[in-house]
Design brief:
The protein has helices at 19-32, 49-56, 72-85, 104-113, 135-142; strands at 9-15, 37-43, 61-66, 90-93, 119-123, 162-167. 31% of the residues lie in helices and 20% in strands. It has one domain (9-132, 160-171): Spore Coat Polysaccharide Biosynthesis Protein SpsA, Chain A, CATH 3.90.550.
Length: 172
Amino acid sequence: MTACPDIRALVAIPCFNERANILRTLDDLLSHLPEGEFLVVDDGSADDTAAAVRAARLPRVTVVRHPVNLGYGCAIQTAAKYALVGGYDAVVFFDGDGQHSGSDVPIALALIADGRADVAVASRFLGSCDYDIPLSRRAGWRSSPTAGLTSPSPPAFSAAATTTSLCRDARG
């Protein structure tokens, strides 16, 4: 990847019914990682997410599709296995719904490439956030086990709010 020439990284995008957002997400990632390698893991979407990505014929974008919805965890496992078998040095898990910025990926990979981190987690709540967070998700924060602790804002590292980058040595 241009941003981190010392490591070969895969940006894995697990998604379910993200046809409306996935191409915009990929365009954002491609603009920040012009030499990047990408894997879209469609977890049995009913909205033709995989077909939309394939039809776009984007460079260095591979699509894997589960025949049925197996859940987010299985989509992550599929991506991790793909990265291990493919010999990647690092894998970035990036949501396909457009809530994250592709500009964060080179920063996380630089931390890994220069040995400052084995795992890097980015959160949209640690800086400015221009993503319109759905009311249903905001309501869920109020009922979460961490609601009402020291901050009125949602947890900074909720699984739904993060982009995670791992190096090969972090697989433990």
